[in-house]
Amino acid sequence: MALLELATPDWLADNIGQQDLVIIDTRPAADYWAGHLPGARHLDPSLFAVTRTDAASLARLHAVLAWSLSAIGLSREARVVVAGAHNEVNAARVAWALAYAGQPHIRLLDGGIEAWTGAREAVAPAVRATAYEPRPQAAYLATADEVLAASRSGAERIVDARSREEFDGLRSNAGRKGRVPGARFWDTGQELAADGRYAPAAEVARKAGDVVSAGQRAIVYCGGGGRAARTFVALQLAGHAATAVYPASWNEWGTSEQYPVQTA
Questions:
Q1: Is the per-residue pLDDT at 124 higher than 90?
Q2: Which domain holds residue 42?
Q3: Engineering a disulfide at 157: which of 3, 120, 212, 226 sits with its beta carbon 3.0 to 4.6 angstroms away?
Q4: CA separation for the pair 216, 155 (Å, rounded)
């Protein structure tokens, strides 16, 4: 299982340049080339967007993970720091994808590159490609069929990380309005403090206790997996290790008549 932590700018300043430290910049390519953290490698978060969770779609995700992580020269021994512009959902999506791939040591730069006051550079580092082999961690990903089973049994908590309007069925990014039956609403605004950094773990844990019991597996979904990935990060940091992302989220559930929808 992955060890997911935060990296402060001060921590990164003390560790940057160490041989086993790999910084992954998840911002748009134009922003990366305009100036990035020294030695940072670029990775596009959209590579890990999933629209379905059938076997073929997951096989494609595994292939993309193997190709992209090999291309940036990642090794399993590396300590990875994921850096977005700030604490946006795309940085969290990459952190979740790395955790799912079985990368053991992952940190997110809290506050992102906007919190970094050190030097930047505009030249990409020379890296040697590796033969990275993902080790998919099933505990971190839930398929639509697993969500359906959880909805029927109630043994696992389904967490809706969309807006209140989406949860209440007032609007939708997909064909149908509503929510997964039995899902609990989670306000993603609770994940960040007023300064945009991640909220204290104890505070998130206390608020999450109203939605999911300690030790109970939480399956988080949103519209397309991004918001759910940041909720995954926040809950992991708060000690909810048994948290999974339903990456296809409402893009799959809301467009397939085989999955039930709750509207009341």
A1: yes
A2: 4-136
A3: 212
A4: 8
pTM above 0.90, yes or no: yes
Whether residue 18 is contained in a domain is answered as: yes
Q: Which of 43, 64, 94, 139 is nearest to 229 (CA)?
A: 94
Going by C-alpha positions, the residue among 132, 130, 129, 91 that lies closest to residue 108 is 91
Q: What is the count of structural domains for the chain?
A: 2
262 within some domain: no
Token digits of residue 69: 């992580």
pLDDT digits (tens, 9 = 90+) for 70-109: 999 999 999 999 999 999 999 999 999 999 999 999 999 9
3-state DSSP assignment of residue 226: helix
pLDDT digits (tens, 9 = 90+) for 9-20: 999 999 999 999
- Is the predicted pLDDT of residue 173 greater than 90, yes or no? no
Please choose, from the candidates 251, 217, 129, 34, the residue with its C-alpha nearest in 3D space to the C-alpha of residue 25: 34
In our burial notation (b when 16+ CB lie closer than 10 A, e otherwise), range 144-170 reads: bebbbebbeeeebbbbbbbbeebbeee
Average pLDDT of 179-203?
A: 96
Give the chain's end-to-end CA distance (angstroms, integer).
37
How would you classify residue 134: left for phi > 0, otherwise alpha for psi between -120 and 50, otherwise beta? beta
pLDDT band at residue 175 using 50, 70 and 90 as cut-offs: confident
User: What residues does 121 pair with on adjacent strands?
Assistant: 36
DSSP conformational letter for 17 = T
State both tokens at 198.
């991640």
The label of the residue with tokens 């590796």 reads: 130
Q: What is the CATH number of the domain that holds 31?
A: 3.40.250.10
